[in-house]
Amino acid sequence: MSYLQKILESHRLKAGDDNRNFDLLYSQAIDFGPTRGFRKSIKKHSENGIAVIAEIKRKSPSKGNLFADLDPSLLAEEYESGGAAAISVLTDEENFGGSEQDLIAASNKVQIPILRKDFTVDPRNICDTRIMGADAVLLIVSALDQIELKDFLDLSIELDLDPLVEINDEKELDRALSAGAKLIGVNQRDLKSFEVDPLKAVTLISKIPETVTAVAESGIDGAETALNLMKAGYSALLVGELLVKSDDRTKTLSELSNKFEWNNDD
């Protein structure tokens, strides 16, 4: 059993033990005010460079602790003042050390939109995402069958959430497009082996329609990589470890996002 399968099994067991009524959760979620426009913010910030989705991430299965005792409110504020287009918050506790409280704290502190990054396996997860104050939800293609993917995408949109549909290869891209995804993240990390392929995003971008907002995830290690991904056609980068471990996050954000100068030869 792969690491991803173990994580999904845990989340599905938890969902199976959840006795909460979906209709009640849906009513609570639909009554929330308008979201802050996750995809809209990405598109705006990508007009003069590339947008950065800055991640609040305490640890990872592959790297261990990154910043275990971080303050999500302070980190979110730092990301916003540094020019991030949006913030991603890990809420998976067992594998990433995150929590719903991390997301709530970050969401209450900033004006830029928030992505809840977790393993969505049940419609109630999507309602929870809206209720805790997020503006976008992560849908991982490899974690869902096609019916689930389409239903979850539609439910997200109903609740005014922007679904970021994550893919890892061309087959999953086809599934995402078939389901109607307009915001697609290319994860260069294989969730089964946790290995990173730094060429994956550049290879797949030519297959992504221009009408789709493309986000590169994992393996972003600095300004040169960011520039290459921007030139390839990506609108945004989702960056976790590099920012969390940075001694000067404002400088790192600036280098990643909007300090590029285009030459006439480019």
Descriptive account of the structure:
The protein is an alpha/beta fold. The protein has one domain (3-257): TIM Barrel. The protein is 44% helix and 17% strand. It contains 13 helices and 10 strands. The chain has helices at residues 3-16, 22-30, 38-45, 72-81, 93-96, 100-109, 123-131, 146-158, 170-179, 200-205, 223-232, 241-244, 249-257; strands at 51-56, 59-60, 64-65, 86-90, 114-117, 136-140, 162-167, 183-187, 213-217, 236-239. The strands form 2 sheets. The protein has an 8-stranded parallel β-barrel, surrounded by 8 helices. Strands 2-3 form a two-stranded antiparallel sheet. Strand 2 (59-60) and strand 3 form a beta hairpin. Helix 11 (223-232) runs parallel beside helix 13. The longest helix has 14 residues, at 3-16. The termini are far apart.
Task: Chart the SSEs and their pairings.
Elements: H1 3-16, H2 22-30, H3 38-45, E1 51-56, E2 59-60, E3 64-65, H4 72-81, E4 86-90, H5 93-96, H6 100-109, E5 114-117, H7 123-131, E6 136-140, H8 146-158, E7 162-167, H9 170-179, E8 183-187, H10 200-205, E9 213-217, H11 223-232, E10 236-239, H12 241-244, H13 249-257
Parallel strand pairs: 1-4, 1-10, 4-5, 5-6, 6-7, 7-8, 8-9, 9-10
Antiparallel strand pairs: 2-3
Helix pairs in contact: 2-7, 4-6, 11-13
- How many runs of DSSP E, i.e. beta strands? 10
* Major beta-sheet overview: 8 strands, parallel, barrel
Strand residue content: 15-25%
CATH class: Alpha Beta
- Output the CATH homologous superfamily: Aldolase class I
Distance between the termini: 46 Å
